[in-house]
Each structure stands twice: as structure tokens, then as C-alpha cells.
Amino acid sequence: TLTPHPAETNPWxxxxxxxxxxxxxxxxxxxRLCCRMSFGTAGLRAPMGAGFSRINDLTVIQSxxxxxxxxxxxxxxxxxxxxxxxxxxxxxxxxxxxxQRLAKLTAAVMLSREVPVHLFSxxxxxxYVPYAVQKLGAVAGVMITASHNPKEDxxxxxxxxNGAQICSPHDRxxxxxxxxxxxxxxxxxxxxxxxxTSSLRTNPLADISRSYMEELTSLCFHRNxxxxxxxxxxxxxxxxxxxxxxxxxxxTFGFAPPIPVPEQKDPDPNFSSVICPNxxxxxxxxxxxxxxxxxxxxxxxxxxxxxxxRLAVAEKSEGCGWKVFTGNELAALLxxxxxxxxKDAHPxxxxxxxxxxxxxxxxxxxxxxxxxxxGFKFEETLPGFKWIGHRIHELAQxxxxxxxxxxxxxxxxxxxxxxxxxxxxxxxxxxxxASYLYHKHLNLNQQLHIIYQTxxxxxxKTSYVVCEDPPTINSxxxxxxxxxxxxxxxxxxxxxxxxxxxxxxxxxxxxxxxLRSVLPVMKSSHMITFTLQNGFVAxxxxxxxxPKIKCYAExxxxxxxxDVSRLEEELQSFMAALLDEFLEPERNNLTRRHI
Length: 595
What we know:
Blueprint: H1 11-22, H2 26-33, E1 44-47, H3 57-74, H4 78-81, E2 83-87, E3 91-92, E4 97-98, H5 99-112, E5 117-119, H6 128-136, E6 140-144, E7 153-159, H7 170-180, H8 194-197, E8 201-202, H9 205-216, H10 223-227, E9 233-236, H11 243-252, E10 259-260, H12 287-296, E11 300-304, E12 311-316, E13 322-324, H13 327-345, E14 355-360, H14 366-374, E15 377-381, H15 385-397, E16 401-407, E17 411-414, H16 423-439, H17 444-455, E18 458-466, H18 470-481, E19 492-493, E20 496-503, E21 508-509, E22 527-532, E23 536-542, E24 548-556, H19 564-583, E25 591-594
Parallel strand pairs: 2-5, 2-6, 5-8, 9-10, 9-11, 14-15, 14-16
Antiparallel strand pairs: 1-7, 3-4, 6-7, 11-12, 12-13, 16-17, 18-24, 18-25, 19-20, 20-21, 20-22, 22-23, 23-24
Helix pairs in contact: 3-5, 3-7, 11-16, 13-17
């Protein structure tokens, strides 16, 4: 019989299950109660509501018990160092869930085991949690957020002691610990009031915010110029947590505060004024920002997503309309900016040997092109900023400097003192870059084209196909791996020679002397990257959360090849051939989608 968990004390979620039982909705009950959440690229993330597959009081308590058990095993000094806990402004009335309540329950579980808790007293940007983990020397951090997901969702994001989000094997081990003790340990685990009375609870907000803003000055290179900047900036926090923090970041850089979009300035868990709380969606969700910018004669719009770890940027075009930069385009600008300013301060050619930039495998190769020309080092990681965070930590431990890292989904990190993407610091850095270019009689888009004319245009295109049948997906990738016979990958695509193949599912990489991929093997999903003779790079990968195959293609053109319309046509033709030749959409009943 499918019934509420006997320990469930939340009347709203208990009532949800009882209502489904009374209505005989067995399929809904099975979906909610017969499977558990698992850690993906952004931690645990699911709709709020009743059931083990959803975010609610009970699943957060269970997850925290498992986290505590694993931390106890890994850190004998857990009761000395404690954990950091933060939360965004999400909430759902019908399930009685809010990020703040779930953060307090997370704290209650830890406090019930006499673990010190550094719980922020109000909502904070996601980057504050990994930053606080490092500054306070905590063993771990938890951020209750679903970032830019729909309003129905929430999440539980875990950071390791180095300040980077957990990855394998920690994620698997924590889930095993969760499964071992599903019963709440005591009534104390349900007492969110415990955070108000326990002497083991501290509020790190003032100290962390002050320290963060002090370290932010390391990314500011032209404060005197900023103070004289005539440009106006509009900022939208997308009904999330970013408003106050972006204002402080601008002041730290010497700017006047950006003009806030009034309808979106204050936290609102319903995201009332946007069709989707994801600024990556472009002009369709930046409408209010652009209208305000037109009214205020502000040429730059900055939009942080609801938990302020990602940043979208739009610029008024010279003729009419607005240019919304892709994540790859912003990365080209930020990579150029960070290296140029670093180089000005480090004229010794030898210094560049210990400088790195990082990006994920599905992001633009523009940083790799910069690295070849400028002499610094470039590395790729698996998709997800958690891999970037851990690699930054490793490189820093070896005495290296990581100037800039990014992922194509508008996630940027300037510097390396936070080990996760950071929309707050990125907003201030973009403003300073725009101000500097203005004094050179340039705008962001003009500088982007100067970069592309110098290093070659890097044009990207993303698409995906929907496939509701997992065996079909496995069959598609098996065919690719045996395209020309057993163990033989395709030799051409669209008539162009493939020079390298990397398959992180099997650990194969034809570009390496030993044919072994330097990236971690990921057997739980499919991901194959093809590098072609003429500058095309393409990656096919499955989604960990949705029934789709994602396709990423980039044309890394040679400098001087500046006929953008022709390059875009060639890229479009290549993407179509990639789908047709390798995925066979019609034969496999796949539904095409373009992003």
C-alpha cells in the first residue's frame, strides 16, 4: 500500500499523499514514492512536494542524515569545523516548503549531532556558500536552491571542504549513507526552531559578505576610470537574491549602483513577471530590463539568475535592437579581458607558464585558441562546474594561477577565490570591461569582433533530439562506436575527415599516445566528441535528467576567414549532417529541437 511515510510531520505534504491515495492515482504515487533522487550536475534537484523523488522536509532530513554519516567517516574533526548552510528565496505554499525552512531543517539534523552550523540568516547568492566553506574551514557546505529552474523546483547542493561541489565518489557514497538510515534520528531533526536556540549555530553573513567584497577588489583593475564612467547599467535579479549583492559589488568597483528593474528587484518565489526564471532564454525574458534600459538610456543590461551564480548580458546595438551575448561570446570577452590585465601586471614572459584557463568540453574552444597564441595553459573538464572547481583547487595547490573559467550556459568565474560560477563578481567585471572599452570608443560587441578577427571566428550551435526510449539511445551510441566495424568510430562527417575522437563513456581518446582519455570515465551516460580537419568540433551527449541527446557544434575558423554569414551556413549544414548521419532521427523516431 502506498501511504505517507509514518514520520512525515509536514501537514501539507502528508495531505498531498492522502489526496492521491483517496483519488486512486497509483501512477502518480509510484512516481513520487518508488524512486529516490540522485546527485546530478547540480546536486539533488526536483519539484517540491510529497514523495521520496521530490524535495520536501523528509527527503532533506534524510539527505542530511546521510551527509552527516559520510562526513563523520571522512572528517574526525567534523564537530570542530562544522558545516555551512545557505538558501535562496524559493518557496511553495501548497507543500509548505521554502528554501529557508529546508535550510533550517538541514541545520537541525547537524545540530542534533552536535555539529557546529554556520547558517546564513537570510537568503544569499549560491557563490557565498562555497566561499564561506573555504574561509571558515568548514568540512562541507549545503545550498538550498534550484537556481534558474521553474518555480515548482528546489534543490540540495553540496560542497566539499575545498569549496568545490561534490563529485564522484562522494555523491555515490552520500546516497548510500542516506539509504542506510531513512528513519529520522529524533524529533529534533524536525525542529527548525533549534537554529534560534543552539549555541552551536552561528550567522556568518556579515563577516563573509565583508570578506567577499574585499577579495572582489582583486578583480578590479581600473577603479579610477570606473568612478568617472558615464555609462548606465540596468540590472535584473530575476526575482531572486542578487539585487543587494550586485549593488555592493558595483560600489566595490567604484561604480554608481546599477539601475534595478523594479518589478524584479525583490525576491518572489512565483517569479511573477517572467515566463521562465532563466536569463539564458534571451530577449524573451529580458523584456522589462530592455524597456527600462531604453527609458534610462542605459546601453548595458546585466541579469543574474535567481540564485545569482549565472550572468546574462545584453547590449544596445549601434543601429537598433539589442544584442544578447551567448555564454561562449561572453567567455571570449572575459578571457581576453582577464589575460590582458594579468599581462599588464606580469611583463616577465616566464610568468605565463603557470597560468591556466578552464572550460567544459561542450563549451567554445576560444580559450584554447587564446592559449596557443599567448602561451598560457588551457584545460577542459567534464560538463558541470563541479569539475572546474576541483581542477582549480588542484592547480592552485600546485602553485598555479587560474585566471578564468566558464561553461557555455552563462556560468563564469573570474579568478579562483570562489570555486563555483559566480554571477555577482562577473557582473562587476563585465561592467568594468564595458567602461574601459567605452573610453576606447568601443562597445562589447565591437571588441568581440576584434577578438574574432584576430584569433578566428568561433561560432557555436546547439541542438537536441528527444528520445523517450532508452534502448534506442543506447543503440544509437553503439552504432557510432562500431560505425566502420567493431570498435571503429566514424572517419568522416558531412564529407569532412574526423581527426580525433574522444569517448569519455569508454575512456577512449585517439589524440592521446596511449589512446586513454585524460578526463574521468563516465559510464553512466554517453558523451563522444569529434574534432574535424577543417576546424569543426562536435559533441554528442545524453542528458542525465531528460530523455534527449544534446548536440554541440562549433566552427573554429582560421583568422582572416571573416565571412560570418558563410561560416554560419557551413556550421548549420554541418549540424544537420551530424544529426542525420550519426543519430538517424527519422529511422529512430527522434524529435528534433533547436536551441
